[in-house]
Amino acid sequence: MRDRARWEAFLAPYYVLPLTPDVSWQYGRAFRHLRNNRNLIDRNDLWIAATGLAYEMPVVTRNVEHFRRVPGLEVESY
Q1: For residue 54, which of 34, 38, 74 has the smallest C-alpha distance?
Q2: Which residues are within 8 A (CB) of 38 and not within 5 positions of it... i.e. 6 or more apart?
Q3: Which residues, at least 6 apart from 70, have a Cβ–Cβ distance to it below 8 Å?
């Protein structure tokens, strides 16, 4: 329980976007596209990309080329 309290304290200053049916839909669409083009990215990164698509928000990353494989995803470098 102590670990959970520490985790919640760490997250407290941030707004965490919830997993919604639209995020799941976007995941499936992106997964199928990337798989069909033999260009898959890591599944955890795909969840990040799907969240960006669903919320119409950019993904900010150092790995720009990786995320640019996902059609329709806005990607920003830092």
Answers
A1: 74
A2: none
A3: 30, 33, 34, 41, 46, 49, 53
Torsion over CA: 13, 19, 25, 31 (sign): positive
Q: What is the DSSP string of 10-58?
A: HHTTSPPPPP-HHHHHHHHHHHHHHHHTT----HHHHHHHHHHHHHT-P
For the chain, the structural domain boundaries read 18-77
Q: Which pLDDT score, from 0 to 100, does residue 1 have?
A: 67
Distances in whole angstroms, Cα of residue 11 to Cα of each of 14, 15, 17, 38, 51: 6, 8, 12, 35, 18
The helix or strand, by DSSP H or E, that contains position 68, with its residue range, turns out to be none
Class of domain 18-77: alpha beta
Q: What is the pLDDT of residue 2?
A: 81
Q: Are 42 and 23 in contact (CB under 8 A)?
A: no
